[in-house]
User: Fold these one by one.
Assistant:
Number 1:
Amino acid sequence: MEKIYRYFVQPQIDVRTQSIFGYELLLKQWTEAGWRVPASFLQVDLAVMSRLLVATTKILGLKVQYVSVNVNREQLMDTQMVQAILQSQKQLYPAKLTVELTEETSAKTFADTAVIPQLRRFVEHGMQVSLDDVGTGNNDYQSIRDFLPLASEMKFALQNFRVGIQDPQIQEKLRVWHAISREYDQRSILEGIETADGAALSDRFGIPLRQGYYYGKLELLRLAGDPLDFTQLTS
């Protein structure tokens, strides 16, 4: 059976204007049980993902200021994926494609010294770089320090913490990373906001850019020729 993938979009909200300023693209696979996140994005054929990214961004042009796509290091260094990213930026103009650098592990390893020139290339082509899931797992300050001058955005994910958001340690982490984003003149996005408590936390720290189910759920972005049953969305 052919594997079918589609990007879903989730809005990113600016509460100062009560408007959508961007969309994050999140890849899902069609299964007998409905749409599911792939067990590993490294198992997704990069040629398929590249074509899908180009087709998806073609639809989103002129709708928002930013469209974000998650890219791990192996994808970032793949020639097909790089060309798809460059083509996507051309289609989105004047909106900007934001490359969210994730820390998904893979069989291949790429040193920072190899990754940085690729990120710089994207910036030179009018794109932006986002540092995803800061403060989580191995994404500490030392591991991303060399990427900070190239990044325009930093994302802090509440959903990555199992304890409640009222935990003082989480709030201290958020305070530190928000201060780092201001130091480098970056956008700071708080994602994984699912309740009014998360929104209140954003208010308390003065973070107007937000993402999460509290503000908007994932929606399938259909492509021309998609069958009707693709409208099903199973959580």
Number 2:
Amino acid sequence: MTAGASFGIIGFGPIARRIACRLRDQAGAPELVALLVRERSREAATEAFGAAVVCTDLRAFIARRPVVAVESASATALVQHGPELLRAGIDLMPLSLGAFADPANEQALRAAAKGGPGRLEIPAGALGSLGFIAAGRECGLREVVLRVSYPVQRWAGMGAGRFIDLDAVRQPTSFLRGTVRDVVSRFPGHLNVSVAVALAGLGLDHTELELVADPGITQAVFEVTSLADAGPVSLRIGGRDAPVDEDPIDYTTFSVLRLLRRRQARVAI
């Protein structure tokens, strides 16, 4: 098997299922060798992917020896399992990046990655790519700002009503701004993409995040601007409207698929 071609997934939510299903039975695709789920999901996971893959405890998951584990469960699961996976020599792709908003969690995960032998590999998530921000660190990166715009109804479902009267919003309205660590700490659980941007560039305490309620859009819009010695860069990612009965197409899923395929590619891009 090609190095990097076996992987495991922690969690059995929509993203986990999309990743596993898209790679299943594809010739030359990375092989799913372990799926860590809660006991209540065991039957559904076994029906979908087979008992030989499904685990309900971390020791069994590690025993399957995936080269890399994709965490798509929760911030709690990332903090609980991440260090042990890294110490076991399993690389880790975390999606529940809100865990990094807690300085103690960030320190623990970074220390485990530094100690290895496993390493953290941060997917770009909903942005699709973070290369231009990471490249900026090599040439005087000094400013990164992320603007996250959601439809009013989506913000309402996320609990943003405690920061703004959403019923009164008639035009794009900014309602929360600060460093990524500050904003995510005040509004946890929904802004993994902002942590990915921060980790790629200036860190959680020096990356600016602005949240915007926009009644004129129907999907998320992410806008990143950065400034380095090489010049300013801006990136805008818009969402795609999809029928409710269609499997969503999302950059989070595809950013993970790209990294998994890149690990085994002979020409890596």
Number 3:
Amino acid sequence: MEYVTHHGRRTAYRVSEGDGEGPGILFVHGSGGTHAIWKAQARLRDAAPVVSMDLSGHGESDDVDAEPGPEALAAYADDVVAVAEETGATVLCGNSLGGAVVQWVALERDYAARLEGLVLQGTGAKLAVLQDLREWLADDFERAIEFLHGPDRVFHDAPAEYAELSMDAMRRTGRAVVERDFLTCHRFDVRDRVSTIDVPTLAVAGEHDRLTPPRYHEFLASEIPSCERAVIEDAAHLAMIEQPEAFNALLREFLGRVANA
């Protein structure tokens, strides 16, 4: 792992370099995750430099003292900008909470002027969280984890060990940070602003995703002027893990279009 220091904290990231000469792409995980969810996307290094990162309080990154909602979202956006500036990445790809964060960068940060593309996977312009889940995150963390790994939420039909790894990752991140993540999602709503995003965008849904269903991505594609939509079959929320070849094929094509724009 490599590190960049900003705003008094260290943010961890990993670079996978190959022969790719396309625009660098930075991958941003969702609630309770780490850079590790993007392991299969390192295969894209023959198309472009690949960077994955840990948001504050996740993986190997220092935590941040931020209240759930806009304050945490802004801090996470600072993490992304710091890593993007350090690595030169000009395409941002975010899953779930990570999708909210990269939208925030595109809408609120000066770095938006350097962006060449966005990939919004398993996310939306609004990310409401069920009240039951919010309550379990507060007082029954294990039940919250089990709920998220129920049918067609995090995974559709992945091997059992995938679910175990994902559940263990949430436990390691810890209840407080995971709750902050989901409450930040719950308070995120840029439906009235996404139409101002002016870079090529790809919205990717998992066919069976019940957490951020395909209709969320239909909205993104209808509102963002240069947004294409794709659905990955036989996948739910973490399509990049369940169907990495299909996901990578979409990104490879998108990166090619961005490079030739």
